[in-house]
């Protein structure tokens, strides 16, 4: 069956299987963070060690996602997805029954190896199965998977841990993973075209050093206990940066590179990548700073803080398919400009939070911010991908997914740094002001002194959080300026004509 036939009648059943698999894998990744303290207590390990359940997962993703372009071109989407889902299911089972931390970490790494390929694979199937004029709607539903799973993860995780134990996180995921695997074996068919490409081992090593080093370096810098001044941050960053330069130079010299950086010759793809990075850094202010404000300053439990942010996540989920249809009709620029304008206003209002801001005000503000964000991410990314010839889709999706990983780590490190530095300077200033106003003849009781220090600490942290939101506002303004240069695009005409001649192997399963 050729591409033209597939696009006339997209295989919705096969795509649904891929959707569920991707949803389960993303949901699983967002469940673990709230469980880390419980796991730390059970296995009697430190915070730095238990954090590897999240860091290790991220590193495996960062190493394998750049290689996804090779896997997607070399192997059929059916065999690739079944392999990925098998690895994910095996990792989930090992994590569920793990008697010690070592086996639990091994299970998480195997999970990550399976999940790393799912999002790039799903995106490539979507780009192949739908013509350009219908991609917005299709990618809108793709956005639904990307948004809803991380949104409900913390709330679901908080409930399961409070009611059962951290093992419930894996026991809930495992049946769905096995169900998706069985459906894939019986229902999934081959859609994406294949090429006889060969993996350059040196490129894989360089890619692993580059993206692994950069991700680990930024992740360490974002940890308040480590920071930028530690060798744990700047050594991996330096090694990763050098590795990335060598990796890119090697790819540009190769006839069949592992990751095709020449896709940046397409101006709208390059622009969409830049906008996506800027937006991701700004977006992480809400994802990191809002829970800090709610839990640390307002004393709301993780479960209730997750419920507080749930309306915003649901809004984003509801809007994603609608945004996709609007994209098909009006293009990306009007959506991106409108969404970013809403993001700028709401992020600025977040910079005006006080210790007495009402919960209703906070929920409404967060929900409207998510409403604005729903108009930006998928339209910008899809518009960039639309300019690429179909043969470059695996490389475009691999680059986009890798950039999401890297920009997420950068956003986390940057926002934590901005907040921490402002909080520290504000704390010193507030303490000095309090000392200047204090009556030297009055001796405070230990209780009164502790209360005053707590108030200063809270006010300093609030200053740090609101300052970080203000910086995030400025970053969103930069994204808005870039979005003004977006144009509606389609793949090159000569490529579009040749694509209908591409034949794909269609394996029917009984």
Please tell me about this protein's structure.
The protein is mainly alpha-helical and 510 residues long. It has two domains: 3-199 and 258-432 and 452-499, MFS general substrate transporter like domains (Growth Hormone, Chain: A, Up-down Bundle), CATH 1.20.1250.20; 200-257. Helices cover 78% and strands 0% of the residues. It contains 20 helices and no strands. The longest helix has 45 residues, at 393-437. The chain is globular, with a radius of gyration of 24 Å. The two termini are 17 Å apart. The model is unreliable at 494-510 (pLDDT under 50). InterPro entries: EmrB-like, MFS, MFS_dom, MFS_trans_sf. Its main location: membrane. This is MFS transporter.
Question: What's the layout of helices and strands?
Answer:
Elements: H1 3-8, H2 12-43, H3 47-50, H4 52-64, H5 68-74, H6 77-97, H7 101-115, H8 118-129, H9 135-163, H10 168-187, H11 201-221, H12 231-253, H13 267-297, H14 302-330, H15 332-350, H16 359-373, H17 377-386, H18 393-437, H19 446-483, H20 493-499
Helix pairs in contact: 2-7, 2-8, 2-9, 2-10, 4-7, 4-11, 5-18, 6-7, 6-10, 8-9, 8-18, 9-14, 9-17, 11-12, 11-18, 13-17, 13-18, 13-19, 14-15, 14-16, 15-16, 15-17, 15-19, 18-19
């Amino acid at each position: 069956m050729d591409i033209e036939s597939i696009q006339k009648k997209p295989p919705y059943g096969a795509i649904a299987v891929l959707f569920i698999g991707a949803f389960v894998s993303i949901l699983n990744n967002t469940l673990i963070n709230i469980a880390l303290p419980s796991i730390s207590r059970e296995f009697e390990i430190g915070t730095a060690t238990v954090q590897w359940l999240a860091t290790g997962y991220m590193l495996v993703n960062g190493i394998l996602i750049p290689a996804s372009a090779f896997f997607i071109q070399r192997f059929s989407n059916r065999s690739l997805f079944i392999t990925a889902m098998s690895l994910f299911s095996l990792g989930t089972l090992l994590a569920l029954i793990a008697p010690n931390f070592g086996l639990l970490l091994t299970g998480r790494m195997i999970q990550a190896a399976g999940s790393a390929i799912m999002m790039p694979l799903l995106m490539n199937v979507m780009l192949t199965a739908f013509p350009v004029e219908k991609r917005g709607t299709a990618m809108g539903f793709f956005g639904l998977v990307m948004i809803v799973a991380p949104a409900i993860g913390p709330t679901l995780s908080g409930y399961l841990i409070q009611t059962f134990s951290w093992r419930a996180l894996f026991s809930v995921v495992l049946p769905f993973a096995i169900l998706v695997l069985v459906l894939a074996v019986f229902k999934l068919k081959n859609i994406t075209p294949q090429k006889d490409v060969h993996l350059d081992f040196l490129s894989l090593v360089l890619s692993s050093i580059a993206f692994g080093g950069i991700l680990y370096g930024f992740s360490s810098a974002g940890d308040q206990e480590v920071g930028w001044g530690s060798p744990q941050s700047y050594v991996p960053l330096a090694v990763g940066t050098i590795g990335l330069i060598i990796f890119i130079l090697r790819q540009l010299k190769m006839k069949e590179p592992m990751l095709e950086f020449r896709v940046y010759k397409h101006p709208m793809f390059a622009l969409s990548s830049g906008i996506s990075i800027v937006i991701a850094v700004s977006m992480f202010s809400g994802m990191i700073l809002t829970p800090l404000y709610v839990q640390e300053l307002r004393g709301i439990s993780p479960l209730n803080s997750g419920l507080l942010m749930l309306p915003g996540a649901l809004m984003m989920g509801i809007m994603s398919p609608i945004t996709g249809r609007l994209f098909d009709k009006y293009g990306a620029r009007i959506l991106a400009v409108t969404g970013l304008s809403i993001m700028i206003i709401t992020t600025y209002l977040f910079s005006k939070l006080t210790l007495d801001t009402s919960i209703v005000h906070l929920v409404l503000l967060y929900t409207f911010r998510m409403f604005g964000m729903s108009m930006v991410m998928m339209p910008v990314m899809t518009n960039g991908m639309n300019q690429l010839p179909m043969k470059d889709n695996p490389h475009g999706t691999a680059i986009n997914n890798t950039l999401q990983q890297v920009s997420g780590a950068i956003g986390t490190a940057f926002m934590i740094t901005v907040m921490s530095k402002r909080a520290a300077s504000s704390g010193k200033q507030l303490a000095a002001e309090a000392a200047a106003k204090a009556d030297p003849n009055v001796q405070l009781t230990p209780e009164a002194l502790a209360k005053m220090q707590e108030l200063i600490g809270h006010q300093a942290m609030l200053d740090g959080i609101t300052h970080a939101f203000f910086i995030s506002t400025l970053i969103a303004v930069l994204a808005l300026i870039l979005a003004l240069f977006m144009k509606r695009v389609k793949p090159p005409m000569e490529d579009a004509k040749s694509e209908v001649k591409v034949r794909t192997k269609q394996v029917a399963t009984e």
